[in-house]
What we know:
One of its GO terms (molecular function) is carbonate dehydratase activity. By secondary structure, this protein is an alpha/beta fold.
Amino acid sequence: xxxxxxxxxxxxxxxxxxxxxxxxxxxxxxxxxxxxxxxxxxxxxxxxxxxxxxxxxxxxxxxxxxxxxxxxxxxxxxxxxxxxxxxxxxxxxxxxxxxxxxxxxxxxxxxxxxxxxxxxxxxxxxxxxxxxxxxxxxxxxxxxxxxxxxxxxxxxxxxxxxxxxxxxxxxxxxxxxxxxxxxxxxxxxxxxxxxxxxxxxxxxxxxxxxxxxxxxxxxxxxxxxxxxxxxxxxxxxxxxxxxxxxxxx
Length: 249
Ligand SMILES: [Zn+2]
């Protein structure tokens, strides 16, 4: 089958541009039908250049949301990793670059039903940014054409707890220092400790917000791309208990 005849899970169809999400939401609520993308008979084995470039940053974020909704329903797109590996071996056209925590329970591709070649991944404890992370993001967006920068924190994050508790250990001390501004900036009247999960999760969310602000501040390349509406910089929080990715910015 030729490339243009195939749909990829990340790719939006024209139905999407006509308010597809709204119609899916009402159809799902009414229990009428599965979203059209779920019943797509054929799919590409890896995101192609043309497919990626046909999507807007907003459509890519919507596709990630729909992927997480499938994950939460216990569903996933039919996929063959070997076919994806073969199809992407000679070139990659990822739609987004994600900055997320190293936590073993928050694997981006799994929780958003994505495949090989769909996204770039930066993973570091507490999803903080530094010049190497920014360099990776600039490579992903400016040189490779990714259209979304997504910073994803998560609930019950050990790095956030460590920053709150002033943990000191080798190189970890310096990493946690990058999270401490989020601890200070979190407005919370209750117990501000690492064992108080509501506070820990509020700090994690603030850390995502501050990291996004730092990306815009520290990367002229990415802010320029965002100013041109070539890319979108967004945030999310993954809830370990519910499996839900909450897009927050
Ligand atoms: Zn974490």
